[in-house]
Write a structure and sequence with these properties.
Mean pLDDT: 82
Radius of gyration: 24 Å
Distance between the termini: 47 Å
Helix content: 55-70%
């Protein structure tokens, strides 16, 4: 058995673990980020698909002209961009709240 394979004493940071945390805390953060990215992607894509679906329905149901797809694409992209902005703003606000105000060894106030 190698000497460095043993668990370090309590309170000593280990590579891959946040200070004072467990390996599950890092996994939880990774899964949270994956869920956030999936939700962001869907919230950007679905408005475009819904607008295009509405245009397709209107063209087939009522015989509207084909150029109706152009405003549908623009409206879908605008709605997706708006959703992206809301998500990004919420993420930035959450990051500001989660920042710890640790004082480093050489930091002076």
């Amino acid at each position: 058995m190698r000497a460095f394979a043993k668990e370090p004493p309590h309170g000593v940071p280990v590579a891959g673990r946040p200070e004072g945390g467990t390996p599950l805390k890092g996994l939880y953060k990774a899964l949270e980020d994956i869920v956030w990215l999936t939700q962001l992607g869907l919230s950007m894509l679905l408005p475009l698909l819904l607008c295009l679906g509405g245009c397709w329905w209107a063209v087939n149901r009522w015989g509207w002209p084909e150029w109706v797809y152009l405003p549908g694409v623009f409206l879908g992209l605008a709605a997706g961009a708006q959703n992206f902005w809301v998500f990004a703003r919420e993420r930035m606000e959450r990051a500001k709240k989660e920042k710890t105000s640790r004082i480093g060894f050489n930091s002076h106030q």
